[in-house]
Design brief:
Layout (H helix, E strand, L loop, with lengths): L1 H14 L9 E9 L3 E7 L4 E6 L6 E15 L2 E13 L3 E6 L2 E8 L2 E14 L3 E14 L1
Antiparallel strand pairs: 1-2, 1-9, 2-3, 3-4, 4-5, 5-6, 5-7, 6-8, 7-8, 8-9
């Protein structure tokens, strides 16, 4: 049942994206601590979106982040800072406001390896500090 929900949600997210956003789109996978293990989308001038599922429970989760900064450190290494939200559905409904900080390495022109640490403040189901982190790989269509 959870896999069906993930597939339907992923399809709906992709269908809502205007075709012009695909001009520079990255798609890949992400895994980490308290981070959705699943797929990630990054589009030029568009928030970074991920949709994932629990490997040891019965919930799905999605994140939407907007990066305020995405600056070069070296010619193919960048860092970013942003703000966003994470929503999850399972036994309870969760909502967390988050601040992603990460690094990207374009080891080949179309391939991006990234890592991020994300402190946050959960407001549902209860107020609490939240911390997550993840690593991932995206392929960019240009």
């Amino acid at each position: 049942m959870t896999k069906k929900i993930v597939v339907i949600a992923l399809f709906l997210v992709v269908m809502m994206i205007p075709l012009s956003a695909f001009a520079d789109m990255g798609i890949g996978g992400i895994a980490g601590y308290s981070q959705p293990t699943g797929v990630t989308f990054k589009m030029n001038n568009f928030p970074v979106v991920s949709l994932g599922w629990s490997l040891n429970g019965n919930w799905i989760s999605g994140t939407v982040d907007y990066w305020f900064l995405n600056e070069k450190i070296d010619r193919n290494i960048l860092w970013y800072l942003g703000a966003g939200a994470k929503a999850s559905i399972g036994d309870t409904i969760g909502l967390t406001f988050r601040v992603p900080v990460g690094i990207q390495w374009y080891f080949m022109p179309a391939f991006e390896l990234f890592a991020e640490l994300t402190p946050g403040l959960a407001i549902l189901p209860a107020s609490n500090f939240d911390f997550s982190g993840g690593i991932g790989l995206r392929y960019h269509f240009k």
